[in-house]
Design a protein that fits this description.
The protein is α/β, with parallel strands linked by helices. 38% of the residues lie in helices and 13% in strands. It has an 8-stranded parallel barrel with strand order 1-2-3-4-5-6-7-8.
């Protein structure tokens, strides 16, 4: 029997999209740990710089300068928290792996501590060959819904494999997972249960990121629903659920919110990370942070 996990490791959204805000959060995490739940660790903060064609999962634009990127890199190194790149564009071809901007960014953050979420086999092979210091994670955008395929993915050279959110409450599937400590649970997915357009949406976002055509992004009424709506989904993972997962041997939990409204992102992080008695103070401090 697998040992219980004593600590919930959270992977947070938007290090590039909400960099000034995370300066505030990481400072609190370093200096005011009493504000955070005791059995908690920040395992990484994920995202991708604007206009990075390798990005996937969400549409991100607005180019970041080298100086801005260096500030994020240095700040995260000082905080001791890995940066996780969302290089999950599913339409990449070999010609795309030589993109100058993406390679510059990957080189800048190549410190032996950071991580990459990947989907495209051609990009993953290129990155593993040229940037072996990175840790690689299997993306939820692969949609591995068969238990045998999922367990095979866990056997590969990945630090973690992100579970498809529709399986969050599937007790039969969860029980059959062989290595639960390598699984990452997506807690607050905004998609509706078994969304029929999910793969089409991933493909559309990948295409628009490659072609710099945000005006062609597929519109979905659920894609930016507020946190209180996500809490009503049947696959939502609550604070109470976290403890149940820990008892089963699951340690890693991913939070959505890269493109969430700033106020909504605050509520997401308060709910999962901050003790109730400190939430008013933290909300005020977050509100003062530059966005």
């Amino acid at each position: 029997m697998e040992k219980y996990c004593k600590k919930a490791i959270f992977h947070l959204p938007g290090i590039f999209e909400r960099a000034p805000f995370y300066n505030c959060l990481t400072s609190l995490y370093r200096d005011r740990r009493e504000m955070f739940y005791d059995n908690l660790e920040i395992g990484s903060i994920y995202g991708a710089p604007g206009s990075c064609i390798w990005n996937g999962g969400r549409m991100i634009f607005s180019l970041m300068s080298k100086k801005q990127l260096e500030a994020i890199r240095d700040g995260m190194e000082a905080a001791g928290i890995p940066v996780r790149f969302t290089f999950t564009n599913c339409l990449l071809e070999e010609k795309h792996v030589y993109d100058t901007y993406c390679n510059m960014v990957t080189t800048m953050f190549n410190n032996g501590k950071n991580e990459i979420l990947c989907n495209s086999p051609v990009l993953e092979q290129y990155l593993r060959t040229n940037f072996p210091e990175y840790t690689f994670i299997s993306s939820t955008t692969k949609r591995l819904l068969d238990i045998d395929e999922f367990n095979k993915e866990l056997e590969k050279d990945y630090k973690l494999v992100v579970l498809d959110y529709v399986l969050n409450k599937n007790k039969k599937f969860l029980k059959k997972i062989r290595n639960k400590k390598k699984v990452e649970i997506l807690c607050n997915a905004v998609c509706i249960p078994n969304c029929p357009n999910r793969m089409e949406h991933y493909i559309n976002l990948s295409k628009c990121q490659l072609e710099s055509t945000p005006e062609d992004v597929m519109q979905c009424e659920h894609s930016n629903c507020p946190f209180y709506v996500a809490q009503q989904r049947e696959h939502f993972v609550s604070r109470e659920d976290i403890n149940n997962y820990l008892r089963q041997g699951f340690c890693n939990f991913k939070l959505e919110g890269r493109t969430a409204h700033p106020l909504d992102l605050v509520e997401i992080l308060l709910y999962y990370l901050i003790k109730p008695e400190y939430q008013i103070e933290a909300r005020n401090l977050f509100g003062q942070a530059s966005w």
